[in-house]
Amino acid sequence: MEFTAKQIAEFVQGIIEGDENAVVNTFAKIEEGKKGAISFLSNPKYTHYIYDTLSSVVLIDKQVELEKPTQATLIRVDNAYDCVAKLLQLYDSMKPKKTGIDPLAFISPSATIGENCYIGAFAYIGDGVEIGNNCQIYPHTVIYDHTKLGNNCLIYPNVSIYHDCRLGNQVTIHSGSVIGADGFGFAPNADGYDKIPQIGIVTIEDNVEIGANTCIDRSTMGSTYIRKGAKLDNLIQIAHNAEVGENTVMAAQVGVAGSTKVGNWCMFGGQVGIAGHLSIGDGTQVGAQAGITNSIKKAEAPIIGSPAIDAKSYMKSYAVFRRLPEMYQQINALKKEIEELKSKS
To answer: Among candidates 140, 128, 214, which has minimal Cα distance to 171?
Structure first.
């Protein structure tokens, strides 16, 4: 597939500086540019690469001022990062999609498969499963009994979706993820622990993407919810009866304990831990490795630390914490001086 700078500019509503007939057929990072590639510049740290890049076309923010001419044709846009995302989506949508059912797949006679679906070798589709149109189920995926998938779902290899779960439209689940395993419910007794049966389900709404090796537990009763538009990275744990709000994003290794409700449009850095039975307000932003132990009604500013506090307060506290060994020595020296003064008096 080839596109001219003019065609790209029309698609992203940009302004061309240079040859409108420059042709591109691939993508490249600006520091690894080559002829026929399109790159983008949004981070000022990479500005110096634009003068020598071999890429034929570069997307660049309108407000960026350059010190000298470039070899590449520039397309100036409001947000280069957002525009390259749209171009990558367009490119990805044009790739041919697999269709058909591999003869090595197992599909229960009571399952219902929509139109234009692909089901790969050694996939297992259980009793009463309903799969919508244009879904792609890759090899070695298991979809247990009575689970329902909407249209245009993409399930990569080795995903396990337990019984009765509900997936909306345009849900993507990456390899190794487990949807609907039992929640961690055990009641202590004199001899050990009694397992509490987890009879609920997992509900994943439309336009959700779930990264590789992420686990979302089924609820004790009712449902664990991943609301529409949420994006979960790799290696995330969502416990039973939790709820992740609309358009919330979580980076790798976030853990959400049971029955916690996370609001809409929240952002969580890597390795954030959230205790159980909490409520996290809409728009909360949490820095990496933070530990949240109390509910947050509405975060006025980003929070970080464990227990998590306002990011500015945390940085001030950390500045003091780094000096604790020195301060400890100073306090001991002062104590010694005071003792000496007391002995003289």
So the answer is: 214
Name the helix (H) or strand (E) containing 5.
helix 5-12
Sign, Cα dihedral of 101, 105, 108, 112 = negative
Question: What is the C-alpha to C-alpha distance for residues 197 and 189, in angstroms, rounded to an integer?
Answer: 16
Let me know if 277 is a catalytic residue.
no
Residue pLDDT, tens place only, 239-294:
999 999 999 999 999 999 999 999 999 999 999 999 999 999 999 999 999 999 99
Write down the mean pLDDT value for the chain: 94
d(CA 155, CA 100): 15
pTM of the model: 0.86
Q: Which of 48, 163, 174, 240 is catalytic?
A: 240
Cα–Cα distance for residue pair 307/283, rounded to 1 Å: 19
Q: CA neighbours within 13 Å on the CB side: how many for 3?
A: 18
